Amino acid sequence: MIKQIVAGFSALVLAASANASLIQNGDFENGLNGWGSSDIIGGGVSVITDPANSGNHIARLDDPSGIGAELLWQVFYVPADVKSITVSFDYKFVESDTSPFFTDGAWAKLFKLDENTFLDVDVLLHTENDSNGWVSFLGTVDTSSIYDYNPNANIEFGLWESISPKTDSSLYLDNVSVVDTFASVPEPSSLMLLGLGLVGFGLSRKRAA
């Protein structure tokens, strides 16, 4: 009985976490499922095993052969009653080029599909500097002007490798999430109390039996 209650509580917590994001497969544990990708000039977009954690998978945008432009994106739906979304992701930009005139760059953009106009650019990411390891990004975006049709938004990650004989920059991504900023999500302490209450209820029933 107790095992059933604990299992049910765990499933409840996992379901709440899994359904929170407006996009799917943000941790890339299912490869590129749910994501679109393109190689405008060369290179590629792939999912690899995290060198620092063999049990984790991450997305990689790169072009080891030289000049290239790669894109990774996902379209999603922002409900009409959602006026603000919180965007978060982990990224690592390894900048490596020898061009004296151009610098490799990486970016993340969010735009609405009805007009193909940007919802926000600067609040996300646009960098030409090596991140020197993983960086966690968190930002909010106003979605009050977005039209209510499905899908109505797109999140896009990109890498541009400049014209240079020696360029091999890479952009790594993980844990991409887009959630309703004002959604009512149970706090961890509340979930813990609920879980303890359920376990206690199960113990009392066992003693009574």
Spatial ordering of strands, largest sheet: 1-4-9-6-7
Order of helices and strands: HEEEEEEEEEEH
Broad structural category:
alpha+beta
**Whole-number tally of structural domains:** 1
**Percentage beta strand:** 35-45%
Q: How many helices? A: 2
Q: What is the overall silhouette?
A: globular
* Fold-level CATH name: Jelly Rolls
Describe this structure in words.
Helix 1 packs antiparallel against helix 2. The chain has one domain (21-184): Galactose-binding domain-like (Jelly Rolls), CATH 2.60.120. The relative contact order is 0.24. The strands form 2 sheets. The protein has a 5-stranded antiparallel sheet, with no helix packed on it. A 5-stranded antiparallel sheet has the order 2-3-10-5-8, with no helix packed on it. A hairpin with a 4-residue loop joins strand 6 and strand 7. The N and C termini lie close together (12 Å). It has helices at 2-18, 188-208; strands at residues 36-39, 44-50, 53-62, 68-76, 84-94, 105-112, 117-127, 135-142, 153-161, 170-180. The protein is of the alpha+beta class.
